[in-house]
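Record format v2
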Amino acid sequence: MRINVIKAYLKKEFIDLIRNKMIILTYLIPAMILILFGFGIKMEVTHARTVIIDNDHSKLSLEIINKFSHTKYFDVKVENLNYKEALHKLQTNKADMIIIIPPSFSKNLYKGAQIGVYIDGSFPLRAITLQGYVEKVLINGFNIKLPIKIENRNFFNESMRDYNAIVPGLFGLIFLVVPASLAAIMIVKEKEVGTIFNFYSAPITKIEFIISKLIPPFLFHSVNIFILLILALYLFDVPFRGNLFIFWVASEIYILISVGIGLLVSVITSTQIAALVLSVIITVIPGFLYSGILMPISSMGKESLIEAHIFPVMYYNHLVYDSFLVGEGFKSGGNILYFLILCGYALGVILVGTFFVKKAIK
Amino acid sequence: MKMNAILKKEFLVFFRNIGLVVFILYAFTLDIYIAGKGIKVTPRNVPVGYVNEADNLVVNKIISSFHKPEFKKSKMFLNEKALKEAIYNKKIMVGIVFNKRFVNNLISKKQAKLQVLVDSTAAAQAEVTLIYLQNILMKFGNNLKLPAKIDIIKLFNPNSNTKWFMSLSELMSNITMLGLVLIAVVFVREKENGTWDIMLLMPVKGSLIIFSKILSQVLILMVGITISIGLIVFGTFDTPINGNLFYFYLISFLFAFAIGGIALVIASVSKTVLEVGHLTIVIMLPLIFLSGAWTPLSSMSPFIQYLSYLSPLRYYIQATQDIFFRGSGFIDLLPYFGAELLMALILFYIGYRKIGRLF
């Protein structure tokens, strides 16, 4: 390994990236994803468009309507429709939920009174959540004491903020997708344009080539760790309870894995478009699925649990969530194990990639 | 005739790139299968742990009512400390402490308070899990009689089958991604290789070249959609369709053109495939995740809701869900068709002005 050769090649790469204006996008994309997704993805269900049809006009029915109006979960409209018109509202997506209070409802209490709730079920999570909210509000409206009351103490995300749940999870997604696609495209571009022959014929070794190709995306994205951290802490007010050093080192290793995946992609593709599509396909879905944003890893079924262990995002996000919300650090054995797995993963990906890069025409 | 020649050329270029053909087949089949099967947003297999300080039969009865598919087999812990440790290591999501006071109150028919420790990292999941818990616990204690029956009907997808919803969402996301990339690259590759000027010098009108180039990729997408709908959506997941499948094809076709318009604008401002790649990611991600493909629009902040009116995907998603689940008719779908068409026309005009002339 000759430092001078690497230096020269690196200089060329940096000039290339800056000339391409790629550097703007390298810093724009991750911040943009974090901001847009952080504000955009909402797992909690609020402001469901609710139409209440009150055929009873009694004190109780008014009270029920009042109870629904006074939460952030429902945007209540009281309308006078028949069943068919109400159904049409659901069918044309003008309402998410219809509640029908039948005539003489309050007279028939305890004598077979029935209240009808129709929920648009096309979003399964929303439907189940709404069902739970409706039951809660109605039982509250009937003024009944439940036999068992749940007193829940929430850990890690005490106030159940959506931001705390989603923003840390995005780190694993962003640092998997963006460095991988950048690294893959930077290498495959030379193949497509034909300048890869410079590498074949010049007195530069394979390892020197790989080092100088992977260092620019790695360095650029190392800065991104802190940009994203600052956004998470100050824009989204996510608490940071763990060790900054562990978080930083784990992120650097994770970016190394990501550029390693980019290297692997560049081995099997020969056009930039194929490299881009492949690197996005193999990183976005697992990055999103196994990030813990949509569902906690511990509540996965057997098949998905095995798949989750194949991809690096699960290990990294466990450490990220720990750094932000839990704060156990290396006191917990699980964290040390996951950290070591990340190190091994990085080493493995880069070694395999290096093995398959050939300094010759196929 | 001239159009046929261009279409033929584009198909030839497409099928020569075997790797790309394989990825696209993957994106339309296996990828959608994995997403449909793998992503379950409603809580499943929640790991429960409990501490039994009271040692009463009632506790065992309550615990045995946590069952599949919502809950994993519950684990017993010796004391609260061990339970907390398991929660900190993320092995347990819900921890329940049954103390003596709870059991005494329950037996003497007073309101019993149950201590529940929840890992609420995933806030929405935790909330739904608590709802499950409350529903299970309603059955215990003094015989609860509600003054009125609460009759909740979930229309269109009564069992909350997430496969139907997820596979369609994934399909629409993939159409968006592939549409943007394929169509933009069709132009930019020629720009990068320097053959674009030659294309424009041919004795064919520039607008015809652009239109047929886009049409070629739209047709490829339509074939992919057909494969996906046939094999995965209907074939594997048995998704019901309450509306007319023809309307779905119509809206897909129009949507592909609207996406083609965006891709044309991308192609007109970028010089290399690399730039296309990055611009596509910048445009694609907000398009997919803020148009309501994965999380309901009505819960997003109002600003994003207004912004999403600019996204062709928003109309496509709503129309698709209307057709598959809500069973809307042609008249109700007209605004969506109109919106897609309008967007396609405007974007085509902008893109054509920029890319359709020499030098």
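Chain B has two domains: 2-39+162-355, 48-137.
Chain B touches chain A through 116 residues (CB under 8 Å).
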